[in-house]
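haha ok so turns out i had the wrong file open the whole time. this is the CORRECT one, sorry everyone. sequence first:
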Amino acid sequence: MLATTEELVQEPGRKPIQDVLTCILEHVTIEEAGFRLVANAERHIKQTLERLAYGGAQTRYPHRVPDRVPKGLAHELVLIADMQYAPYFLTVADIVRFARQGRGILCQGRGSVDNSSVCFCLGITEVDPMLVDLLFERFVSTERDEPADIDVEFEHERREEVMQYIYQKYGGSRAGLTATVTTYRGKGAIRDVGKVFGLSDDTISAISGLNWGWGRADIPEDRLRSIGIAPDGHTISLVMAIAGAIWG
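then structure:
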């Protein structure tokens, strides 16, 4: 037997919405609703994250949970609640649980996430931050006002299984795949093409120094002449033409 509240809303702040829906159901105004409305905002989904974190601590320390661990978890959970990050932690934990327990896929959290006792107890990371005295605020802090960043590596041969699980469980409208595509800027194009044609480092530096910021690789001939380079020379003209072709 389990005594708990009836879960009517996701979080306490949505109680006014529940009140309005109750009035619609009962065909009354908000002034007439009276005891038809719930007495407080406690009928929300309870922080599952706390249950999993403290339960995970029992798994991590099967003989006895050190006193410092519950204190560390309590500190982190308060900050996570204040920043409203619990759904994010739960989502990552769900994906890791699917990979490890459901499919036996190798995965590992990395980076500043290793500073989190919550992530350690959830099984996302393998470093005990309480053991090596790592600072949680390096990972999540109200001062920085930026989202928590949990990086998880999955064995590359089986990443597709994880991606498909995410799409199937959370839906295509709530999941996306991103990639970084590196393109040539002017300086980089001139540098790499110049090396292929055997230009000296001094010559490459002099030419690329004429290209500012994100500019293209097409440098006016008069500017090349200003640094003592003949723009109509066979090698230089090839370098500039090919660098311009691979820009972008």
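The mean pLDDT is 90.
again sry for the mixup
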